[in-house]
Amino acid sequence: MIDINVSGVDQITLVEVSGRVDSMNASELGVALANEIDSGRNLIVLDLAGVDYMSSAGLRELVNSLKRAKRTTGDLRLAQPSERVREVLEMAGLDTIFQIFETQTEAVGSF
Questions:
Q1: Which of 63, 82, 90, 102 has a Cα at 20 to 30 A from 15?
Q2: Residue 61, pLDDT score
Q3: Domain topology for 2-109
Q4: Residue pair 27/61 in contact by the 8 Å Cβ criterion
């Protein structure tokens, strides 16, 4: 089960995710992010504080969304990933590709 909440802070789109992001539901996250980017809201902070597990399918959606945002001169930044999710990002080498922030406020303020 995954819960995705989208809201706006000035020109920034805040996407808060909670639950387990796995092969069964990773595409839901991808679609939610793609919808925001395709409608012109391409400055995105993805808050992962509530995500306790992320599979390779979830990582793939994050990378695809980052590429999509950058193609439209936007960006996708990550906020407060749990220890477990941060480890997965580091093992996959994605901590060098994404800007990762300790708090949602820092991530939003980074734009």
A1: 90
A2: 98
A3: Transcription Regulator spoIIAA (3.30.750)
A4: yes
